[in-house]
Amino acid sequence: MATIIVKKKRKLTVSPELQQDKSVKVVECKLENKKPTHLTEKKLAGEEIGRLHNQRQEEIKQKRIANCRAWMKKNFPFTSSRLPLKVGASKDLVVEYRKQGISIDEFSATTIIRRCERLTSKLQYLENMTKEDSKRHDLYGNVVCDVDEKHRKYANELLSKLKKAMNK
């Protein structure tokens, strides 16, 4: 039987599946000399506890990604058009995020940057970058400038790698 010891002033949250499990036994006791105040006994291997924790973290991550995607779609619908964005568009999104005072529980600035990285690595986005007459746009769809030749060349390299990986 595995024993989980939770230190003082910390809470152990048990998932609904574990709450239904009859082999879970929570024992509250008072221990002296600053020893833990809660003991949870469970027939669980350490790997299962880690798996449950990782599963919960993944659920939180997916929720934040969905929240970020919805926020971007609502406030900046142009970002989903797959047309080349101006250099520094992710920084503009982070500035808007901070202006709106969105809670870090919803999603973070890091989530926005990762969403932009994902957006700019999509096949259609890269194809639009490699066109000879392609233009960069701001978050609202206004043309800002032409795509530089070095950026076009880099997008072409990424596009060929992506297509090669898709053919495997």
In a few lines, what is going on in this structure?
This protein has helices at residues 16-20, 46-75, 89-100, 109-120, 123-130, 149-167; strands at 2-6, 25-28, 38-42, 135-137, 143-146. With 168 residues, the chain is α+β, with helices and mostly antiparallel strands. Helix 3 packs antiparallel against helix 4 and helix 5 runs antiparallel to helix 6.
Question: Would you mind describing this structure in some detail?
Answer:
- The structure is a single chain.
- With 168 residues, the protein is α+β, with helices and mostly antiparallel strands.
- It has 6 helices and 5 strands.
- It has helices spanning 16-20, 46-75, 89-100, 109-120, 123-130, 149-167; strands at 2-6, 25-28, 38-42, 135-137, 143-146.
- β4 and β5 form a beta hairpin.
- α3 packs antiparallel against α4.
- The chain is flat and about 65 Å long.
- The two termini are 47 Å apart.
What sequence of helices (H) and strands (E) makes up the elements?
EHEEHHHHEEH
Helical/strand content category: alpha+beta
Tally of contiguous helical segments: 6
Distance between the termini: 47 Å
Topology:
Elements: E1 2-6, H1 16-20, E2 25-28, E3 38-42, H2 46-75, H3 89-100, H4 109-120, H5 123-130, E4 135-137, E5 143-146, H6 149-167
Antiparallel strand pairs: 1-3, 2-3, 4-5
Supply database-style keywords:
single chain; 168 residues; alpha+beta; 3-stranded antiparallel beta sheet; two-stranded antiparallel ribbon; 51% helix
